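USER: My hope is that you can spare some time for a protein that puzzles me. I am handing you a single protein, as its sequence and its fold in token form. Walk me, if you will, through where the backbone shape changes along the chain. The protein I mean follows directly.
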Amino acid sequence: MRIGCHVSIRHGFLSAAQYALDLGCGAFQYFPKNPRSLSIKSFDPVDAARCKEFCITHQLPSIAHTPYPINLATDQLQLKKTIVLSLQNDLAIAEACGSIGIVVHYGKYAGIDPLQGYRNIILMLNEVLREWDGRAVILIENQAAGMGTTLQELVQIRALVDRPDYIGFCLDTCHAFTGGLWNGANWEQVEQVGMELNYWSHLKVIHLNDSRYPYGSNKDFHANIGRGHIGDEHFRNFLQSPIIKNVPIVLETPSVSNYSVSEEIDHVRRLGE
């Protein structure tokens, strides 16, 4: 299984990939720029190309994660324009680094009619992808509350955009648990729903996180694997599913003293055996 974690690009894209490999990662995730900002980043194409070559050589998949202020559902015109440019910048960086794509959340809709929020998402995705011709794709992540908590929503949005081939999915286990999708014991049922919807064919990455809060709480607070409300036994059942065996897995779990990322990756690998 290709299991890894989120790493910093403080010292460049190639350095991030090298660090991930040194940790024992079989995949890694990174923020292509400041995670708190939507500003456009000028990046070193040589460094990005070296990162891409390194990842190909070591068969190390990478995924970019868009900044936190991204809100696909927003009504604010100026913010929409800023987000579109930011996402196009993220796609360009991911493409240069040879990454699978960019993970993005729906965000929140503040208006009265929730359907308008979904229209906004579709229109913004269309605008971002209008002239995109790279290999990197947009990876929509399920949320813990509000919009985007069900597989049906995610699949329907993909079906309604103009260029669905450039849309894939990222499954976050903490969000699935607290958002009411997966209670830990019903993985076979989730599998079946996903097969009926053709969700799994477009799943490109998994965010593997335990939860600090119980099922259905709609709270997004991650815990280390086996140390939260989901627990090792439910993760063992999940990780041994043939459906997700070949999907890169990224840990977004808390840093804990006396428990390294490498140790947690080894723990996850044992659960999946």
In short: The chain has nine helices and ten strands. The two ends are 9 Å apart (CA to CA). The beta strands are 3-6, 28-30, 62-65, 101-105, 137-141, 167-172, 203-208, 210-211, 222-223, 249-251. The CA atoms of residues 41 and 191 lie 39 Å apart.
